[in-house]
Amino acid sequence: KINLKIDGIEVVVEEGVSILEAAQKLNIHIPTLCYHKDLCVAGNCRICVVEQTGARALVASCATPAASGMDIHTNTLKVRTARKHVIELLLSEHNADCTKCFKNGNCELQNLSSEFKILDRLFIDLVPNKHYTIDQMSPSIIKDDSKCIRCQRCVRTCEELQHLGALSVAYKGEHMKISTFYENSMYDVVCSNCGQCVIRCPTGALTEKNYLEEVWDAIYDTTKHVVVQTAPAVRIALGEELGFESGTIVTGKMVSALKRMGFDSVLDTDFTADLTIMEEGTELLTRLKRALVDKDPTVKLPMATSCSPGWIKFIEHAFPEYLDNLSTCKSPQQMFGALVKTYYAQKKKINPADIISVSIMPCTAKKFEADRPEMRSSGYKDVDYVLTTRELAIMIKQAGIDFKTLPDSNYDSMMGESTGAAVIFGASGGVMEAALRTAYEIITGREVPFEGLKVNAVRGIEGLKEASILIENVKPEWSFLEGVELKTAVAHGLQNAYELFANIKAGKANYHFIEVMACPGGCLGGGGQPIPTNAEVRAKRAQAIYREDEGKALRKSHENPEVVLIYKDFLGAPLGHKSHELLHTHYKA
Ligand code: HC0
């Protein structure tokens, strides 16, 4: 145990705890910029400096471990002056045209300069002398170097959490910048489009590419029928942008807001999440049969989920030899888009050319996914515009809607019904749990042997999770699975996905089915979610997702009546001809 004093108050902390964390324990606020709870400590911005009695220089509190006997002061003249100088220096080379910035109102540098009342420029403004790049080539992310403060949170995110290294530090001294390989556009490098850098960037240097005006134009165009789908993880996070605590479920209010905004039909990605389970589950069972009965040497196992577009981009770069292991299922977003302009259009007797399909996602990579050439199987662009949770919150505010007092509404019918299995797609392990709930029941005729249908082994925050389930007393048609121990693994965050596949490649691990989500925590921690997103917030959102599942009348995908109906009226059977045409694809190296 370490005993120290901060601003005259005694505090006891564990060994290894920083001065910053010790101060937080006392509710003493020390400003930070380069520090982020999810990342290793960099200690490069110096905004968190404090005075230590007896020490010659100020110390960075995030990077200095607390030690017994320390006497720390967080608000002396020296500290205040140093912090002000840090902010002034940052502003001297920052494009502070805040009213033109997408992060206006949600910028940590702006907040600090407001807090410290930086009204004059003490240092010569360097901005006009510099040649900055604004990279807008990516369909997901805009990188604006004129707003970068070089804190390197994005670099550490991309390297440590996502194993990509698409962003790195280039040049030295005043020329130092955050760059990409040979300064190529983000679109042309190994960026997965996951947006984890965007949710950690303290300023407007990295933002999502927004499609607010395009979507408003579509809504105002009376010749268009505008359909919106909402992803599983949006409903448990949107409230954070609109005055609710993290972990508040706002599904009904969100649906009401979308209707008031003028969307013609408010539907649910969860419907196609249920449909994905039918298609992907059937695909897994088909692969297992080919492997176990036909002894087909070409069958690829383990089969891996394919619904996270950041993961798809990553495997294309990092493990192209495993592309055939991906399920051929498109993601629920893209299945939904393909069906809106075919099935939905036919049923509603609307010309698909007059439909605009919008999706609300917790994810920036979904913008990239919707743009992929594989995603036009309806004969049109299947999903026209993808908005993040944050963009939806902006639109709700722009529309003058008082979200807090909105009554709840239900989704519209036909592609609006979903089960609890679909909701949990938004948390790491959710797709696996949903698949097991259905596949086990199809094979055995019984529910999964877990209390409350909870597959606890695949829940939780560990980066890599494993679960195996013994299949016994099967129905006669599945006799080849009798006694098989189905081995599964779940990874979230691309660093964990890398480790998982490196182990498989090295022959150290062996599974039948794998779920990978690109973002830490799964989609609930996606790059399009409210800021801040960190471990504490992710945990609250996960609890909300599982609460939403438990509150649902139906909790298994195969019980979704609209899914049953679409097979009867339109698709035929899972993996049938129509499904193959609209719901499946093949990613090639
Ligand atoms: Fe997800 Fe999805 S669960 S990727 O995380 O599968 O973004 O929320 O919408 O498509 O359903 C994101 C979330 C989705 C898709 C679904 C899947």
From TrEMBL:
Cross-referenced InterPro entries: 2Fe-2S_ferredoxin-like_sf (IPR036010), 2Fe-2S_ferredoxin-type (IPR001041), 4Fe4S_Fe-S-bd (IPR017896), 4Fe4S_Fe_S_CS (IPR017900), Cytosolic_Fe-S_CAF (IPR050340), Fe_hydrogenase (IPR009016), Fe_hydrogenase_lsu_C (IPR004108), Fe_hydrogenase_ssu (IPR003149)
Domain of life: Bacteria
CDD domains per UniProt: fer2
Domain 4Fe-4S His(Cys)3-ligated-type positions: 78-117
One Pfam family hit: Fe_hyd_SSU
GO molecular function, one term: ferredoxin hydrogenase activity
Compartments in which it is found: Membrane
GO biological process terms held by the UniProt record: ATP synthesis coupled electron transport
Domain 4Fe-4S ferredoxin-type residues, every copy: 139-172, 183-211
Keywords from the named record: 2Fe-2S, 4Fe-4S, Iron, Iron-sulfur, Membrane, Metal-binding, NAD, Repeat, Translocase
Cofactors demanded by this protein: [4Fe-4S] cluster; [2Fe-2S] cluster
Domain 2Fe-2S ferredoxin-type residue range list: 1-78
GO cellular component, one term: membrane
Family membership: Belongs to the complex I 75 kDa subunit family.
Name of the protein in its database record: NAD(P)-dependent iron-only hydrogenase catalytic subunit
